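To: structure desk
From: M.T.
Subject: fold request, one chain
Message: Could you run this one when you get a chance? Sequence is below, nothing fancy, just the single chain.
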Amino acid sequence: MGNSNSSDSGGDIPNTNIELTENARDNSSRTFTEIPILLQGNPLQTVPSSSVVTSYVLAEWQEIVLLFPHEFYRFYFGLMLKAMNNFNPDDEEQQWKISAFLRWYKEWFYPALLSHHNYEENILFAWIKEKVSDWPEQIEADHAELLKNMNTIKALGESQPSPEDGKQLKELVKELVRFASEHFAKEEEFFPKKLREANATYQEWVAKNIEEQTKKTLPGVIYVLHSWGGEKAVEKLRSELPGHILMMNDQFWDSPWRKSSLGGLQDIIAGNTQLDDQVSCLEACNPFTVYGEKPWLGSRTPVRGRA
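Reply: Done. Structure tokens follow.
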């Protein structure tokens, strides 16, 4: 991932708007890298969905660090858009998709992205802001707007949704994905420069990165890394994580995430059935909760006890 002792200056970023490069703007409308949903095994290596950093191998570590979470959420974005594209809010037989999607959003997507948002503001960016001369105000403004968009969608699930809510949901999801994708690109443009300006080291970032890898994010980060980084990138990340976190991920977090989060979206996209008992991340990632082998639908009821 490049020389971890790199300290070359990337130049100052004005405390105003962040302008995307021509390459990033040209690629902003491209589709997300197609990554299959696999309940077992891992996707094959392809390329990042980022419009700024387009190769793991050719990038320095400063360019890579934000791709670990961002590529995971871009994977979610692609699936969310596919779910909305396959949803007709005027079709009575598809009304169940509104509640199913909103519950998946509340239980899996929202807490994960909120966790990343808090990690950036309170840990990652706070660490670098202390060491540089200025900081783009637009990042904080974007974070506030992104959180507002996230909460607007979440609020739709607080009451029985209507067909009109379904139409609104489709538009809100598309806008969330558009805004978040552009915001991620801005961060990927300016943050590597700030890392260099701060003379930050790769080892320092590794220590900060550990604090983001939780049951809400790590299974997806590793899963998607197989695609945009490859097997060697996965091995490197795993070697940098504490043993107890890897144990929790491998034994308790990964399988429920695949069955409940990925499996849930897969069924919504395909329109397989009405979903009546989605398992939350809080339950699914609990090491004292044991699940049967059936898919994540209502037939898979958690049984308390040790695995």
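Reply (cont.): The chain is about 60% helix and 0% strand. Let me know if you need anything else for the meeting.
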